[in-house]
C-alpha cells in the first residue's frame, strides 16, 4: 500500500480575544491508500477541526499535511484548488441547494469547474446509479428522506472522481436503519472504486461496521490508534476503554456482580472469527475442577470479522486450577481478562 494521507505533528490554535484555544495538539497519523480510517471521540475532542485540516479548509497552525506525498504547505491557490478536487467531503447536514433538483445539485459544482456538458451528464447518471437514486434525479431535497439526501451528497462528492472521501459525522442525524444503509454504501464505494475514506464520528458502531483502523481522540490529542480489532479487544488507554465500553458489565447490576465475585472469579472472554467459546468452556469443566457459569454476552462484527464477548464466573478449584484453565483458554485463541 502507498500512503494517501499523512499528518505530521499538526496543531490548530484559535485566538479569541484574550483566550487561546488549542483545538488540535501535535497529531500525527498515516492513512494508507484504499483503507477506511476512523477517528472517534466525544464532542469537543477536536475531530471536526482535524478533518477540515486535511483539505486545508482549516490550515494547521503548525505541522504538515501530505496528500499522496504532496505537502499542502506552501501551495498557491491554484495548486491547492487542484489538490482539493481530489478530496471529496460529506457532512452531517448534507449541504444541498434546496432550490436545485438532485441532478442540479450534482451537476452545478462540475459546471463551475469547467467540465463539459456531456461529461457532466455521464457522471451524474453514473453516480446516481451507484447510490441508488436514478429515479430521483428530478426531485428536490425537500422531497427526499434524510438518507436519500445523504446519498445525493455522496454522489455529488464522487462526481469529482476524488481519491479521498472525507466524512464529517455523515450518519449522526440518521436513524439506525438508514445509518446501516449509508455505511453499506460507503463500504461498497471503498471496495469498488478504491477510494480512501477518512471519517470522524462519535458513534462507535460506525467504526465497528466499516473501519480498518481507528484513532481515539480526546482534548485535541490522539490517545490511541491501531487496527479496529486490536483497539476493541485490547484497549490500553482509559479513554479508549470508556469510549468503547470495555468496562461495561453487559447490563448485569453491580450488586449481582459482587455476589458472583464473592463465590468465584469473574472473567471476560473475547473471541475473533470462528472460534467458539462454548466447546472451550465445556472442555474446561471436564478437564479442571471448575464450574463455568455464563452470566451475559454479545456477538457482533468488527468490519467483517465475528467478535464475541462473554461474562463468565468460574467457581470451585484452587488458584492453580484457575491459572491452568486460563492458559488453556488462551491456547485456544480466546482472550481472557479477570474483572
From TrEMBL:
<keyword id="KW-0029">Amino-acid transport</keyword>
<dbReference type="InterPro" id="IPR003439">
    <property type="entry name" value="ABC_transporter-like_ATP-bd"/>
</dbReference>
<protein>
    <recommendedName>
        <fullName>ABC transporter domain-containing protein</fullName>
    </recommendedName>
</protein>
<keyword id="KW-0547">Nucleotide-binding</keyword>
<dbReference type="InterPro" id="IPR050086">
    <property type="entry name" value="MetN_ABC_transporter-like"/>
</dbReference>
<dbReference type="InterPro" id="IPR018449">
    <property type="entry name" value="NIL_domain"/>
</dbReference>
<keyword id="KW-0472">Membrane</keyword>
<dbReference type="GO" id="GO:0016887">
    <property type="term" value="F:ATP hydrolysis activity"/>
</dbReference>
<dbReference type="InterPro" id="IPR027417">
    <property type="entry name" value="P-loop_NTPase"/>
</dbReference>
<dbReference type="Pfam" id="PF09383">
    <property type="entry name" value="NIL"/>
</dbReference>
<dbReference type="GO" id="GO:0006865">
    <property type="term" value="P:amino acid transport"/>
</dbReference>
<comment type="similarity">
    <text>Belongs to the ABC transporter superfamily.</text>
</comment>
<dbReference type="Pfam" id="PF00005">
    <property type="entry name" value="ABC_tran"/>
</dbReference>
<dbReference type="InterPro" id="IPR017871">
    <property type="entry name" value="ABC_transporter-like_CS"/>
</dbReference>
<dbReference type="InterPro" id="IPR003593">
    <property type="entry name" value="AAA+_ATPase"/>
</dbReference>
<dbReference type="InterPro" id="IPR041701">
    <property type="entry name" value="MetN_ABC"/>
</dbReference>
<dbReference type="GO" id="GO:0005524">
    <property type="term" value="F:ATP binding"/>
</dbReference>
<comment type="function">
    <text>Part of the ABC transporter FtsEX involved in cellular division. Has ATPase activity. Essential for cell division and viability.</text>
</comment>
<feature type="domain" description="ABC transporter">
    <location>
        <begin position="5"/>
        <end position="244"/>
    </location>
</feature>
<keyword id="KW-0067">ATP-binding</keyword>
<keyword id="KW-0813">Transport</keyword>
<keyword id="KW-1003">Cell membrane</keyword>
<dbReference type="GO" id="GO:0005886">
    <property type="term" value="C:plasma membrane"/>
</dbReference>
<dbReference type="InterPro" id="IPR045865">
    <property type="entry name" value="ACT-like_dom_sf"/>
</dbReference>
<keyword id="KW-1278">Translocase</keyword>
Amino acid at each position: 500500500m502507498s500512503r494517501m494521507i499523512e499528518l505530521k505533528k499538526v496543531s490548530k490554535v484559535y485566538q479569541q480575544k484574550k483566550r487561546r484555544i488549542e483545538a488540535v495538539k501535535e497529531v500525527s497519523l498515516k492513512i494508507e491508500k484504499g483503507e477506511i480510517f476512523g477517528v472517534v471521540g466525544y464532542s469537543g475532542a477536536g475531530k471536526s477541526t482535524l478533518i477540515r485540516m486535511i483539505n486545508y479548509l482549516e490550515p494547521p497552525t503548525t505541522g504538515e499535511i501530505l496528500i499522496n506525498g504532496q505537502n499542502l504547505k506552501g501551495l498557491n491557490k491554484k495548486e491547492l484548488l487542484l489538490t482539493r478536487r481530489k478530496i471529496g467531503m460529506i457532512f452531517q447536514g448534507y449541504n444541498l441547494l434546496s432550490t436545485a433538483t438532485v441532478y442540479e445539485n450534482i451537476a452545478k459544482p462540475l459546471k463551475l469547474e469547467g467540465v463539459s456538458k456531456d461529461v457532466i451528464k455521464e457522471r451524474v447518471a453514473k453516480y446516481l446509479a451507484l447510490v441508488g437514486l436514478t429515479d430521483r434525479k428530478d426531485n428536490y431535497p425537500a422531497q427526499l428522506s434524510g438518507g436519500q439526501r445523504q446519498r445525493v451528497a455522496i454522489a455529488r462528492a464522487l462526481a469529482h472522481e476524488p481519491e479521498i472521501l472525507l466524512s464529517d459525522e455523515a450518519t449522526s442525524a440518521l436513524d439506525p436503519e438508514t445509518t446501516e444503509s449509508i455505511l453499506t454504501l460507503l463500504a461498497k464505494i471503498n471496495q469498488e472504486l478504491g477510494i480512501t475514506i477518512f471519517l470522524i464520528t462519535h458513534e462507535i458502531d460506525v467504526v465497528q461496521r466499516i473501519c480498518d483502523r481507528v484513532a481515539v481522540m480526546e482534548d485535541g490529542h490522539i490517545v490511541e490508534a491501531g487496527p479496529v480489532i486490536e483497539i476493541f479487544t485490547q484497549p490500553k488507554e482509559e479513554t479508549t476503554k470508556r469510549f468503547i465500553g470495555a468496562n461495561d458489565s453487559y447490563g448485569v447490576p453491580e450488586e449481582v456482580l459482587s455476589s458472583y465475585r464473592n463465590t468465584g472469579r469473574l472473567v471476560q472472554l473475547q473471541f475473533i472469527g470462528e472460534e467458539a467459546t462454548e466447546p472451550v468452556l465445556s472442555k474446561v469443566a471436564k478437564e479442571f475442577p471448575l464450574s463455568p457459569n455464563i452470566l451475559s454476552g454479545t456477538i457482533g462484527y468488527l468490519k467483517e470479522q465475528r467478535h464475541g464477548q462473554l461474562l463468565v464466573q468460574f467457581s470451585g478449584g484452587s488458584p492453580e486450577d484457575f491459572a491452568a484453565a486460563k492458559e488453556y483458554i488462551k491456547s485456544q485463541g480466546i482472550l481472557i481478562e479477570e474483572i
